[in-house]
Amino acid sequence: MHSSKEIIRLIKKIRNEKKMSLDTLSKKVGMAKSSLSRYENEERKFPINDVGKFAKALNTPIEYLLGLDEGNSALSFEYNYYPTSISAGIPLEVDGITPDDVEKITLPDTIMGRWAGNKDIYITKVNGDSMNNIMPDGTLIAVKPVELYELKNDDIVVFSTNGEYGVKHFVKTPDKLIFKPDSTDPTYADTVIHLSDIDELKIKGKVVMWIVTAD
User: Fold this and answer.
1) DSSP H or E segment with residue 106
2) Cα–Cα 20 to 30 A to 38, which of 6, 12, 16, 64?
3) How do the domains of the chain map onto residue ranges?
4) pTM of the predicted protein model
5) Mean of the per-residue pLDDT values for the chain?
6) Which CATH architecture best describes the domain 76-211?
7) Cβ neighbours for 200, distance < 8 A, ≥ 6 positions apart
8) CATH 1.10.10.410 for domain 4-66
């Protein structure tokens, strides 16, 4: 798999070959021209999670930008995929999903990295904007089931209270658990659960990676 430097160099090369201006590409991917310029000049690390947007804007296969070999089936693994969206805004009721609803999704090992082939991992999507600084609406997330005691501050977790699910940053204090948004919209508030009410909380897993997909 290409490194972030290799990807942005390839993006710049393709953009120039297509005679596409920096301004045009930045508008296509919804990014400030100045930010894209800093990525191309390698003044800032290119966010690999955004590669899908660039692949679509440049009409280029994402596998080409990532440096993947689609023909080698040994480089991929099939994961359980829950065909719903876990809300990154107001928690969403998803307890109605049954084993019959679970689908499969195949992802390259080079995308999954250290989690490649992990049978405990499941894949789903987020919706809403309360995590849109790092996870735009529609982002695929890989979730590993964990126990509460395994979590560390600032982990991103899927949690539920009374069957309502959400995705947030996790913070533990001496008397409460806080689930914090990461949004461009300042109106999103923390979800706070006091330890005396912890029986209402279920940790469904830790988000170990996420993949921003093109629309």
Assistant:
1) strand 103-108
2) 64
3) 4-66, 76-211
4) 0.62
5) 84
6) Ribbon (2.10)
7) 161, 162, 193
8) no
